[in-house]
Amino acid sequence: MNEILQQLLNGIIIGSSYALLAVGLTLIFGIMRIVNFAHGEFYMLGGVFCFYLASRLGINYFAALGLALVLAMALGALLERSILRWLKDASIDSTIIVTIGLSVFIQNITLLWMGPVPRNIPTPFSNAPLSAFGLTFTAIQIFVLLVTALVIVGFHVLLKHTFLGKAMRATFTQRDAARLVGIDTDRIGGVTFILGSGMAALAGAMLGSIYLVYPSMGAIAVLKAFIIVIVGGLGNIMGAIVGGLILGVAESFVSGFISSDYSEAIGFFIVIAVLLFKPQGLFGRKGQV
Amino acid sequence: MRTSKFMLTAIVAIAAIAAAAPFVLPNYHLHVLTTAGLFILLTSGLNLIHGYIGRLSLGHTAFYGLGGYTAGMLSAKLGLGLLITLPMAALVTVVAGLALGHITLRFRGAQFVLVTLAFGAILHLFANNLVEITGGPMGLPGVASPLIHQNLPGAHLFGSRASFYWLVLGLDLLALYFIWRIVGSPLGDAMIAVREDENLAQAVGINEYRYAMLAFVFGAALAGLAGAIYAHYVSFVSPEIFHFNIMIMILVMVILGSVGTMIGPVIGSVLVVLLLEVLRLQDAWREPLFGLILVFATLLFPQGLALLVRNGFQRLFHRQMGRQADGTDAPDDSGPTAPRPSPVPAVARAASGRADTGDTGDLLLSVQDLTVRFGGLVAVDHVSFEVRRGQIVSLIGPNGAGKTTTLNLVTGFIPRHAGTIRFNGADLPRRLMPHEVAEQGMIRTFQTTRGLQSIAVGKAVETGLHRTLGLNWPNIFKAITVGMPEGGRTARAEALLKRVGLERDPQELTSNLSYGEQRLLEVAVALAANPTLLVLDEPVAGMNPEETARMMKLIRNLRDTGVTVLLVEHDMKLVMGLSDHIVVLDHGKRIARGCPAEIQTHSAVIEAYLGRGAAHATA
Asked: Is the pLDDT of residue B257 over 90?
């Protein structure tokens, strides 16, 4: 029983970061109509920037974390302005191919820059295991859970209770209608891409602080993000959050009770099961997208 | 045609030069060409799926890997030779393609992309983890590399790589031949119709699923063969064969070369393989450069090299041609012509059927208690009406009355919740697909369509002929292998254009037509499908008075030559001027029916359109 709760906790901690990653992807897809294959690279850059600032430049971990986010979001802004806006009326296929190209480029430039060796982000948290209610965890795990939960809640507030959020939701549901009532959908798209990239970068920095960072981590992450959005229902934010948690918990159970070799496979099995029995995803409506 | 003869000569010449290459080129160059040849198998298949059906599959490497592992295991574990491993690889990938297609082809757009991507990743994972079967990440060594030609006399004249080179070249030519047959036949037209507008395609009886599956499975088999040859060629197969990088590579080749052209993937494969060889000197920068080329090639030349060159030439010679010019240099065997129906099929049988109008005519369509609910809203509520043979029947009502929904229900685009539909003497089951309804002879047009935008006018009409061509599986097989007689399709299309009064060059692009002309073209496409009942959804919406008058004349003319017409329309002048019988809907219910004179004075109708006061005032 305890073991089950323990794996559940581990799963929720990983899953919260997955949720963050997938919400970013969903926002970008929903508002900009871009299936962003470069999303995983922002996840990777979040981790790599954080490592570089904290380890190589010796900056305080929290400052490094913040700075890494700013850097990743700035890069997001740059890409959106220079390349993605070019694609505004392009077919979904063109956007897919362009973002794949961006992903290949960013990943390999990072590889040239820091080499393939996985690195550790130094954090001020002690590695000593803590325990409460019979569960074992580390301080960094709790930090990660708190930060991701806070950001997701904060994002929810932004979406529901601010003017920007309202404009984003309007663009999400009906882009043309949003344009008709005077919403600058291009600007909303720009803000969305920056926010979405920031979420991915934060997820990467968070999981990178628990595990390791390396240039190819984004390629795996983007696959996971896609699994989550298929499972949750493409273009559904709630689906992305729940899907992220489901994937995290499922992976954690598989590596805890079966074998860590198959923890990555479980996501794909979930995808097949969902596709066979509920092809529109858990939260997707028929005819959506 | 002179151009196609020239093309044929050019192709034969290139093939002959390519076949002679092993006698002059060193092994290294042969190796590069063999690699390009393997990629041509992959890209041509992907192009058929992406370029013709319009689905971007990112799981294409799944079949490449599956073929590689099938051949690899049969060879390394059972010691079987090429003659068995290659057909087995093709067989396994065809079966896998059918299974995967069955699951994935129900998705469109971004969902299809992601789902196929997931399947590729799953197989990669299996290859890595099922160590007992696949050898795991270390791969499967010891795949036999049979050098067939060393037993041939004169083997010393050419390099040791020659037999694989010839094998790949032969398969490339065979694959390109089949694809040429497919895209040049009505199969290719059907695929393009599906790509351009799947609703329109279904409305003229094209079974979207069948053609999507055909392209998908054919592409899968080509990829499987490529994988199998590759495994034998390098005597080794590892999970890297499933790697997403290979998928990216073949995608780049297809896009760079031009999606939806036959020559594009060939150009793309050769160019990219050569480019990679050049970049090999810059090994560390190879991948990032590749990424950049991908981004900027897509942004700057979204149409790809083949079309860039072709369009450049055409501009040079001021020639107007369709985008899928591949269709125009199609197989042109004017052999023994099939028994060909008259250009406007329904017309011939016409005059007799039209003799009796009014309520005495026999029943063509009978709709009883048709009902559909969207959530809590009953959009169509127990609607019943009839269409008699040889009549023009109009379905009218205020906005939101459920007219278009009724058409969608009758033509199978929305499944009904209740009610029976009897058409031409047979009941239409509830779960009938739109193309199956069309198959029965009920052909519809749409209020708004994406339309067949990027093809020639004549080609567009030819896609409508699909239903009349008898394309069952044996005929499809024949079309792919030995080709299909032209059968006067071009002439029939031209006759139909004349019939609807669209005096345009059949080579003109549909996107160059005016709005009114496009609506006429839609009618021509529908007529090509030889309708027993022609269903028109707001045929004159948005037209100017002159265009409206033209359309009215056409519809009346169609009726007079035996086509029964059911239409939804807001233009009262047209409705009252044309209809033999009118059915009025309001809020999903039928509130009246009768001849135009009856409807004009019907109080419920006036009330529905003008409100209660108006009804009293006229009463």
From this structure: no
Q: How many CB pairs under 8 A join A and B?
A: 101
The mean pLDDT of A11-35, rounded to a whole number, is 91
Cα dihedral B593, B598, B604, B608, rounded to 10, equals: 80
Phi, psi of B433 (to 5 degrees): -75, 155
What the block records as the tokens of B549 is: 């008058």
Q: Smallest Cα–Cα separation from B217: which of B101, B113, B89?
A: B101
Residues, chain A = 289
Token digits of residue B237: 């197969």
CA gap B272, B587 in Å, rounded: 60
SS (H, E, C) A204-264: HHHHHHHCCECCCHHHHHHHHHHHHHHHHCCCCHHHHHHHHHHHHHHHHHHHHHCCHHHCC
- β-sheet bridge partners, residue A213: A119
Distance (Å) from the C-alpha of residue A83 to the closest C-alpha of chain B? 8
Report the C-alpha gap between B472 and B325 in whole angstroms. 26
Its ipTM equals 0.82
pLDDT value at A42 more than 90: yes
Alpha-carbon span B368 to B350, nearest angstrom: 28
Does the beta-carbon distance from A279 to B107 stay under 8 Å? yes
Q: What is the pLDDT of residue B450?
A: 62
Which of B183, B209, B188, B187 minimizes the C-alpha distance to B198?
A: B209
CB nearest to A230's CB, from B115, B244, B295: B115
DSSP state, residue B565: E
pTM tops 0.90, yes or no: no
Task: Identify from A26, A33, A79, A96 which residue to disrupt to test chain B contact, counting B C-beta atoms within 10 A and taking the largest count.
Answer: A96
Q: Which two tokens stand for residue B348?
A: 């011939």
Largest CA distance in chain A: 57
Q: How far apart are the first and last CA of chain A?
A: 41
- Provide CB contacts within 8 A for A220, sequence distance 6+: A40, A264
| Residues B343, B528 contacting (CB under 8 angstroms) | no
Q: Which residues of A touch B121 (CB under 8 A)?
A: 223, 268
Tens digit of pLDDT for each residue in B270-294?
Answer: 988 988 888 777 677 878 888 888 8
| Residue B219: alpha-carbon gap to chain centroid | 14
* Contacts with B285 from chain A: Cβ below 8 Å: 112
Q: Is A130 at the interface with chain B, CB within 8 A?
A: no
* Interchain contact, B129 vs A97, CB within 8 Å: no
pLDDT at A285: 57
A192's tokens: 């969305």
Are the C-beta atoms of residues B262 and B208 closer than 8 Å to each other? no
Q: Is a pLDDT exceeding 60 seen at residue B615?
A: no
- Residues B400-425: pLDDT tens digits? 888 989 999 999 999 899 999 999 88
Q: Is the pLDDT of residue A287 over 50?
A: no
